[in-house]
User: What shape does this take?
Amino acid sequence: MRTFILLLGILISNLFLSQEKSNIQYITGIVFEIVNQDSLSPLPGVNVRFSLSTYGTASDKNGYFKLPYTSSNKQLIFSYTGFQTDTLEIKNNQPLEIVMSEGKILEDLVVEFKKGGYRFSKIDPRNAHIIGQDELRKAACCNLAESFETNPSIDATFTDAVTGTKQIQMMGLSGKYVQMLSGNIPIIRGISILNGLKQIPGSFIHEIAVSKGSGSVLNGYESMVGQININLKQPDNAEKLHLNVYLNQGGRSEYNAFFSKKFSNNWSTTLLAHYEEQQIVNDRNKDGFLDNPLRNDYVFHNQWNYRSKLIHMELGVNGVIGKIESGKKQKWFDTAFPVILPDYGVDMTTNKINGFAKIGYLFPNDDFKSIALQFSSTYNNQNAIIGMSDYKGKQLSSYLNIIYQQEVGKNKEENFFKLGASCQLDSVNEILVRRYEYDNTISGLSFKWLEIVPGLYGEFNHSSEKIGVIAGLRADYTSYYRKYFLTPRIHLRYSPNTDLAFKIMAGSGRRNPFMIMENIGFLASSRKWNLNSYGLFGLGQEYSWNFGAAILKEFTLFSREGTLTIDAYHTFFENQLVVDLDESAREVDFYALEGKSFSNSFQAELNYNFNRRWSLRTAYRFLDVKKQYQSGLKEKPLLSKHRGFVNIACSSRKQNKSQWKVDLTTQLIGSQRIPYTGDNELPFQLKTRTENFLVTSGQITRIFSPKIDAYLGLENAFNYTQSNPILSSENPYSEHFDSSLIWAPIFGRMIYIGFRFTLKD
Assistant: This one.
């Protein structure tokens, strides 16, 4: 009887277990790779796991995989050495077919994808977000400086009212403290820090990765408040042919062409060309100065890619030829000091050539080990005549970086370290001669220097369900100052659940100031340059610390998804070049910081999809940026403490592959402090603060087919402009002339149209 009862118990237990097992749901699928343009082949050995789980499987010889499925598993990650890691949103347990694309080695920014052209990363410990092509097209962006119009974290402003030069700001600090990268290689530095922004056409860009706070040590020591990595179009992610024509009311026209070709399974190429011109004279405010400089710009980019199972290689060259003419009348001069005093003119030229190479090698016997080499060399020649000032600048920069990556531990996809060595070379020659007509004096500056900075670094990365870590340390040596310096950085993430992430970060950064080019807007004035200097450009390396925290929360409201991000940062400088406009309205003083210099920033941003066709992005930002000047601790001038941002986008239903898209952006710009003008004569004195104002822009896009679309846009819809952007515009050679005090738009309302043709297959 006991034996019978025991056998009966075992039988009943097996029945229950069998029933429970039968209730388990599975998700299945097949993973493919592209053999050629027309065929696919099953890909074995692909790692498949859910995003918030360490459990996973691998595809078999037929590319087939099978995993237990629950409704809480929302994202499936596919990874395989030599291929681009892909993340797929899971809605049900229907069978899947996945096509893996050959990927890039040692990508610095890993992003958890969220559909749309603007997305945040929960997985990356850094406070990072991606601006995709759909987002870039909302403002028909023409160049990099104009690519952030729908981004509440980054501002783009003019340096002055004459030259047309733009600069960006992040956390209330100048773009010179933001490290600019292209394909994770440093660019737009040195004498190209300002003009370089307009030398990258928006149509060349695949996406822009923005990371707040000190960045990765892999890319150097110059990231002080953030990194912006521009990923250009590649043969694997771009169209075969793309044409874009842009025209605006002010007479600006742009023509862009992109071509890609895959010659074999290994070799492919891209060719990008850009031409921009402005030949129509605009002077809406009747001050005698051109509102928009006349210009001719040529940009080209050619890249060759090689892909195999073990080797990835990118080789390329790009160049820029640019000319700007502006001033009081359409009359310019070739020499700095003509015999007869001319009308105030501006003549700026740029000639730049860059070559680069990226080579990655995957170890054949270890799927978790790779080594990569990055190289770039740039020659930049910039000349400018601004009134009676003559500037000539030349810079040769070369960059070499070697990176070794090794994944370690039981779960190798969770832990890996990077070790590397880099070397940055800069040879710079700058000459500035200024003549002040009102008192018949001449001053000059000349900087000629060579600096070589070799460095070593290491970085550890951990990414698991709840914890993410990026911890790095650099050690560099500057030949110019003959000293070593360290750059530590750390980023931490804690995710208590799938919808919430807490991030904290800290790090330091250093950079050499380029005093003349970074302050070229002050050449468009009669301000005398006073230097209280020592060391390179007055003080040596600028040195800062950055601390930050961020919260990212995904939520569902009325069955629709949304994202809330809140971040706060504190940045302080231990050494900094101070540019002081408050001692006198007719002078600009340069000296080394003695005392405090800090930036406190707070930003809350909400992204919400009302439905499939309507979306909202709104943000509020507060900035507290102060510096110790000779006259005391003061708020940074020409910077709004408060800024509000609203973007609304909608799209119609697709009908026969055609569609309408509408986008509207409004920004509230808070009051800004105006530098001291009290020692000017009364007609040339300004108020101490500006008023609040709104800037609204919108765009309508008509998609006729997958190949053809057109757009119509309106910038500065309410036509708000600064009333007198140029002091003493009637007499630009007087002591009161100043076009550098810019806080609002100059041109006013502007209509633009454009046309795109795209051939994908």
